[in-house]
Amino acid sequence: MSASRTLFHSTSGRANRAGFVYLIALLAVTVAAAIAMVMGRGVGLRLQAGNAITARADCRAAALGMVRAIVNDLNATLATGLPQLSTVQPAGEQIGDCTVILIGRDPHGVTMPFALIPEAGKFPINAPAAGAALDAKYNILSVLPGMTQNVAAAMLDWIDSDDEVSSYGGAERTDSAYAGAAVPYAPRNSQFEALAELRLVRGVTDALYFGEDVNGNGRLDPGEDSDRDGKLTPGLRDLITVMDIREPPNAPDGSARLNLGGGRAGRTFQDLLTGLFGTARGAELFAQATGTFANRLELFAALELSDAEAAALWPCVSVNGVRAGLIDAWSCRDEVLIAIAGNNLAQKIIAARPTTPPNGPGWLTSILTRDEAKLFGNQLGSGSYQFSADILAVRNDGSGWARLGATFNCTLGSAVVVGLQPLETQGWPLPWATPDQLRGGAPGAVATLLTAVPH
After folding, report:
1. Given 38, 158, 262, 422, which residue has the most CB atoms within 10 angstroms?
2. Secondary structure of the chain: what % helix, strand, coil (to 5)?
3. Dist CA 246 CA 364 (whole Å)
4. 242-268 pLDDT, tens per residue?
5. pTM of the model
């Protein structure tokens, strides 16, 4: 009996110890598996983060590649006339493992073209003005969407050289908006150095600066119509430029522009016409150029020029030396054109706009009377020598994207990049093709999705 109990207890103890050891082993295996899973997940997350960083770097490199390609095109076309894209495919350029597009701006704010953005299509806030020209500048600014006379006056006070409140009723350093700020500041009393500096001006709200175009693609997308009128209300960032809008001092062949000085300058002008169009045609056009001209647009309205002739002559002449601050009537927003020329004439110009970028002003001068051209020729022109680019680069596997802003100046004899800035903070610009839709798609699907702009 005693031996049986001893054997029973001994056997039972060994079984209990074996079970305990088994539980400990199972627990150890479970803990080890959990640690392995966590470590594996951490490694996976690090790999994903590394892949995302690599993808973003690839996209940024592709965007910079697009900048270089744009410069090459602008330089190539500048030698013969207005700078423009010639080989770059703005609706889908393949650079490395990325698809790159240029997000353009529709003057009507309806769709989203693929193109460079002509800066001459915006109102040049920094353009010098005095007397009647300053009054005109104030009046134009006052009627842009969302603007008021007080805000327009504050803008002019920001860039004038004194600390005296202008007669329009602006704001200088003693204004509570500046002196009473958490960190007090004062108007620059000089030109705006960056477009975002407009946000420092008294009365410029985020709604006024950004408008309804939340994602900055130039069109009204779902969820952006805050006033529910079915139309895109643009912000100041799409209506105003701080770039120095001007044309080159020389003709495309490198010779100095002929300044007619208000008249046809006698034989010199006829020689230019003869050199461009031949003896007979030159004499015919010279005979049409009678009287004096307030500006170049009036001169062209007096001549019966074909589109090709207007394109060839426009960059070769100036009247009274005016070649700065002219707003491109083709690419400017409808709201800017209305502010400058009034609704009736603006609608006439809008209806005549070609569907593709024109090579010269023939389309414009052919619809203007000489009186209309005389009245607005110091403000309106056709074409741009300054551009901005809204560049979106996406990896073809959808694993990353980058958005880059670039500005170009073509008035110095060659195209020069004068600004670069990341635009990812503006967000993803294409609501019809989200990053999730692009990720892991079929080869070639990225370009198709990016360019499927809804109408």
Report:
1. 158
2. 45, 10, 45
3. 19
4. 999 999 999 988 888 999 886 766 679
5. 0.87
